């Protein structure tokens, strides 16, 4: 029997989502039905909605890959989850592929295999897909057990839904992918929902110089509250931006991060990394088809350029991250500036387009 629920459907790129009732296929083999507790509005979904994302997604679709909730029902062959468990949706971890068996791999071979999935819902006779094989912009969603992580029950859904992507990506970029060390100098370009969490990660790792860079001066206060030791506005610094950052870090930072999703800031982040050992980590997603120019000499001089997915974290490491959250080692409460019902999802994305607020979360 299909499950009757309510979902925000994106019928085509560039149009607002429509919230309506859908019939959701029940969990099949290895799948889990989750009652959504909270779902985060991530920038990645906005790029898909606007049709500018490199991620292959077929419309009509229920988007949303950040979400947490309660397991209602499990399909055959589901071993690690049971009804009543609290779960966070996350990048898959099949445990069997080359990436899952590699000591540091976190890009499971099933990452894209499940994304272009057969439709799993219908609305008024139309077939609808679950975006990213998850689809959390709905009161219920069904996904594969390898895309869910069971976590402790006392953690609030709104905060842990943010661990599905944005917060984990930012914190992990610093503590896992770049492995920032104590005493390090760090520069973060772009202080959105991801960049602000890179600041928190750098602070937790013991970095002593943490410079936030953003064209929006309103980000300075929150950046400092989360651990930034300085704030630089590129609109004020102008052409001298990289020179100023080099001066502030005595010749370049040990670690730089790009979280604005622009080619220009990626070039600046590479140039602001210290010759000899500076590591530049690309976290933001640039528009499809755009490329970074890199002088090989920049790399020969000992700089490193790398990227990260989900901050290098695997799903099985999330319970520890939830413990850190509950111990107050990092703060997600101050980053969640809006709680919205599903019906107001388009308002949430309009706010994101206008650059207002930090993170909006749907609560159910
Ligand atoms: N220099 C510095 N900061 C900039 C610049 C620039 N030239 N242009 C934009 N920014 C800042 C914005 O002012 C904003 O604070 O980058 C920040 C981006 O934040 P969000 O829009 O909240 O994006 P976020 O969710 O943090 O994601 C960052 O990663 O996943 C990708 O698509 C996502 O590209 C986006 C990036
Ligand atoms: Zn795998």
Instruction: Work out the helicity level.
Output: 25-40%
Ligand roster? adenosine-5-diphosphoribose, zinc ion
What is the general shape?
Answer: globular
CATH class of the largest domain: Alpha Beta
Going by CATH, the homologous superfamily of the largest domain would be: Medium-chain alcohol dehydrogenases, catalytic domain
Report the sheet-strand fraction.
15-25%
Roughly how many Å is the radius of gyration? 20 Å
| Number of E-type strands | 18
Mean pLDDT across residues: 95
Q: Describe the biggest sheet?
A: 7 strands, mixed
Query: Under CATH, the topology of the largest domain is which?
Result: Quinone Oxidoreductase, Chain A, domain 1
| Tally of separate domains | 2
Structural class: alpha/beta
State the CATH architecture of the largest domain: Alpha-Beta Complex
- Poorly predicted tracts of residues: none
Q: Roughly how many Å apart are the termini?
A: 23 Å
Fold topology:
Blueprint: E1 3-9, E2 18-24, E3 31-40, H1 43-49, E4 61-62, E5 68-74, E6 86-89, H2 98-101, H3 110-113, E7 121-123, E8 126-130, E9 140-144, E10 148-151, H4 157-161, H5 166-177, E11 185-189, H6 195-204, E12 209-213, H7 219-226, E13 230-232, H8 234-237, H9 241-248, E14 255-258, H10 263-271, E15 279-282, H11 296-300, E16 304-307, H12 318-326, E17 336-340, H13 345-353, E18 359-363
Parallel strand pairs: 4-8, 11-12, 11-14, 12-13, 14-15, 15-16, 17-18
Antiparallel strand pairs: 1-2, 2-7, 3-5, 3-9, 3-18, 5-6, 6-10, 7-8
The structure holds adenosine-5-diphosphoribose and zinc ion.
Descriptive report:
With 364 residues, this protein is α/β, with parallel strands linked by helices. The chain folds into two domains: 3-164 and 331-363, Quinone Oxidoreductase, Chain A, domain 1 (Alpha-Beta Complex), CATH 3.90.180; 170-308, NAD(P)-binding Rossmann-like Domain (Rossmann fold), CATH 3.40.50. It is 26% helix and 24% strand. Strands 3, 5, 6, 9, 10, 17 and 18 form a seven-stranded mixed β-sheet that branches. A six-stranded parallel β-sheet has the order 13-12-11-14-15-16, sandwiched between helices. A five-stranded mixed β-sheet has the order 1-2-7-8-4, with no helix packed on it. A hairpin with an 8-residue loop joins strand 1 and strand 2 (18-24). The longest helix is centred in the middle third of the chain and has 12 residues, at 166-177. Residues 43-44, 47, 166, 189-195, 213-216, 219, 234, 259-262, 264-265, 283-285, 355 line the site of adenosine-5-diphosphoribose. Zinc ion (ZN) binds next to helix 2.
């Amino acid at each position: 029997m299909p499950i009757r629920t309510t979902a925000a459907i994106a019928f085509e790129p560039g149009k607002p989502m429509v919230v309506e009732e859908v019939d959701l296929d029940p969990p099949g083999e290895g799948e889990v039905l989750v009652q959504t507790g909270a779902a985060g509005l991530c920038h990645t979904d906005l790029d898909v909605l606007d049709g500018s994302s490199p991620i292959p997604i077929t419309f009509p679709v229920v988007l949303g890959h950040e979400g947490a909730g309660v397991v209602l029902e499990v399909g055959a062959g589901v071993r690690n989850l049971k009804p009543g468990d609290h779960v966070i949706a996350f990048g898959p971890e099949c445990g069997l592929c080359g990436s899952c068996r590699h000591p540091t791999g976190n890009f499971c071979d099933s990452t894209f295999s499940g994304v272009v999935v057969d439709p799993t819902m219908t609305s008024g006779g139309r077939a609808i897909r679950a975006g990213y094989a998850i689809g959390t912009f709905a009161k219920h969603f069904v996904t594969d057990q390898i895309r869910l992580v069971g976590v402790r029950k006392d953690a609030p859904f709104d905060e842990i839904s943010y661990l599905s992507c944005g917060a984990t990506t930012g914190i992990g970029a610093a503590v896992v992918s770049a492995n920032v060390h104590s005493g390090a100098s760090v520069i973060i370009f772009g202080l959105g929902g991801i960049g602000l969490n890179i600041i928190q990660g750098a602070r937790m790792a013991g970095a002593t110089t943490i410079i936030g860079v953003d064209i929006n001066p309103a980000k300075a206060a929150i950046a400092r509250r989360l651990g930034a030791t300085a704030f630089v506005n590129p609109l004020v610094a102008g052409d001298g931006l990289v020179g100023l950052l080099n001066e502030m870090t005595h010749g370049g930072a040990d670690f730089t991060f790009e979280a604005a999703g622009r080619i220009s800031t990626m070039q600046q982040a590479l140039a602001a990394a210290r010759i000899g050992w500076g590591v530049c980590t690309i976290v933001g997603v640039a528009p499809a088809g755009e490329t970074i120019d890199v002088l090989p000499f920049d790399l020969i001089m000992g700089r490193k350029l790398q990227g990260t997915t989900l901050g290098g974290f695997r799903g099985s490491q999330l319970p520890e991250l939830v413990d850190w959250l509950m111990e107050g080692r990092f703060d997600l409460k101050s980053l969640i500036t809006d709680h919205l019902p599903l019906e107001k999802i388009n308002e949430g994305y309009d706010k994101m387009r206008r650059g207002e607020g930090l993170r909006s979360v749907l609560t159910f």
